[in-house]
Amino acid sequence: MNAQTELVRSESALQRLxxxxxxxxxxxxxxxxxxxxxxxxxxxxxxxxxxxxxxFTRMIPASHPFIQNYLKFEDVLRPQSNVLRVVVxxxxxxxxxxxxxxxxREVSDRIFYLPGVDRGNLKSLWTxxxxxxxxxxxxxxxxxxxxxxxxxxxxxxxxxxxxILRANMLGSYVADDFRSTIIRxxxxxxxxETGKPLDYGSFTQxxxxxxxxxxxxxGVTIRVIGFAQIIGDLIxxxxxxxxxxxxxxxxxxVLLYLYCHCWRSTAVTVLTCLLTVVCQLGLLSVLGYGLDxxxxxxxxxxxxxxxxxxxxxxxxxxxxxxxxxxxxxxSRRTFRALFIPGTTxxxxxxxxxxxxxxxxxxxIQQLAVTASIGVFVAIFTKMFLLPxxxxxxGVSARGMRQQQKRANxxxxxxRRLARVVEPRFAMPLILISLVLLGVGYYARHDLKIGDLxxxxxxxxxxxxxxxxxxxxxxxxxxxxxVYVVMFKTPQEQCSRFAAADLANQMEQTLRxxxxxxxxxxxxxxxxxxxxxxxxxxxxxxxxxxxxxxMNNARSGAPSEFVDPNCSVAPINLxxxxxxxxxxxxxxxxxxxxxxxxxxxxxxxxxxAGNAGIEAATNMVIKVSxxxxxxxxxxxxxxxxxxxxxxxxxxIALMAPLYLSTVLCEAVxxxxxxxxxxxxxxxxxxxxxxxxxxxxxxYSRMEGFLHQGLKFQAAxxxxxxTTGTSIAFTGLTLAVGVATWSFSALKFQADMxxxxxLLFIWNMIGALVLLPAIxxxxxxxxxxx
Length: 784
Prior knowledge:
Keywords: Cell membrane, Membrane, Transmembrane, Transmembrane helix
Shape: elongated
Main location: membrane
Number of domains: 3
CATH class of the largest domain: Mainly Alpha
Mean pLDDT: 83
Subcellular location: Cell membrane
Radius of gyration: 32 Å
Pfam family, one: MMPL
CATH architecture of the largest domain: Up-down Bundle
Helix content: 55-70%
CATH topology of the largest domain: Multidrug efflux transporter AcrB transmembrane fold
Low-confidence stretches: none
Strand content: 5-15%
Membrane topology: Multi-pass membrane protein
């Protein structure tokens, strides 16, 4: 009795709160509209200032041990991590022409002065750090690749060719067919001219205008590969994303009008949803956030959430006006009916987004904040602004005729659908769902973490970036996927025999790991130097126990192979690809060697390089995915339980969402989509959005049950009102995002397909599976 009394008191308190809010809202309608008008103008003005935003450090899991090691030695490791490779190709033949070499010098100089370039580590055939070494009868000789007396003549060009071969640059800085060269461009995270984080959009645009387009007119082909170029291309594609957003909004507007046959309701709904997006962008700008390429789709999701809630409002408003209410009366009744379930559903949406904060990757955490701000805005626009606007707009006569037509319909489809709550239909339906769950578990077994393809999977295979990457892989033997192991010793001890011998053992071990194509390090340079200083006798191609010999061998080593204190010697592993399996295999091999051979003074630390950083990202995602899913289901379940005060109802609502999640992962596995930064948020977003359907439907059913209707009758009545809205919303949003399949961005097309499936599955789950489960859990003989 005490529990029931407390429940009644709690419900009474909520109803008093709703009544108080309703009176305050509708007695001050003009004041409410004035407030939203001023807020919209201010935030709309701030929204114009928002810019695409991307950062290398936000793309990596900053607290992971690999990344901590990388950041500790960032100065020496940067040339192999956040680096661009600019390929300058001579389409007319080999590079050994005066015109090409002069153009290459101009390209190198132009890139050197771009803001954000780590100029001290930039390397090309023309830079002073491009050196050759050879053994001669009088000892070791060395010099620059471009000799001091270079004049562009045939003799000078022949000398350049010889120097390239002496420096062993063929396959790394010069193409195997001598038709192109590479300029290695390490980037700084902070622009030294502005003191602000490097703007990848501006940087790649400057590279496009000042280098790629400018020198294409001079007869060379410029290709650019690297993280910054990927981000730059994604930012450049923002206009395409905006175009598809506009197409989706237009399509949804048309479908919404065809549904309600009322231009006033359609205009108010779409305007309110767009206003939500504008205010969201304005708040982001006020708080100092931008839109990075991976969260640029969030505004559409906020628009979709808005449509989902607004359609419920329109549908109930039309129903109330059909019973003779004025627009103001209908709006007030709609507000009373939808305030609690609507707010609960939006809170559940917010929970789905906020759980992304457990993933220790800045770009995903920013996505969580961006989406949560959007939901926060939606609570105000959908729960307060929309009812007030509808109290003025009402529903047109044509819309009311459409509503009357629906009310007089016999609803044959829904009558047949309502029978799913009968035990003879509910039990087989639940068994089929369990079979689908089993199939989903089996199919998702192949779900991988990370990238599953070469190149940049964000783009289609025929995209310019992937064509450039394919060219580099075809014409150069050195891979662009570099996994860097940090070999750490006490200061000035990296060239000791013990350290060199251990590093050599590790290199030999890692060369045998599948996926490792080659290894480059200080110790390879030292072996060659000792070999060269002993008349090229292969017997001397070994490390010496004489420290003087070892110190001499270290002299002249490239800066990317050792730090100034001789305490960190990066060992670069060039991999065949950056697939998750390859990265995991290499990381495990390094870890196994480290455990077996690492001494107290010598540490083997992982990992840097673009492949090492991606390996760390994959590890974080693998752990965080499970944590996120557990959190999202637990917290949303608590929200649902708080709303309905019933564990059985909570199970009935959450079960279809779990089935949708498993099926979504199964589809990802079969499509060859890995779980990574671009795909992981979709799962949380799908659960957050999908729970809306169930909350609205069961809330409506519960109202009919309290009126004394049997369960099947209550379900049928809920289908006639809320059910039509859910079906319309699910199908409309699915059709809208289906247009994304035509996007030039593969990741947008993939997200569109996954969202289509989630919208459809969540709709079917709410309309069919939820009532079937609830009928078996909640019903008794009296209520059936």
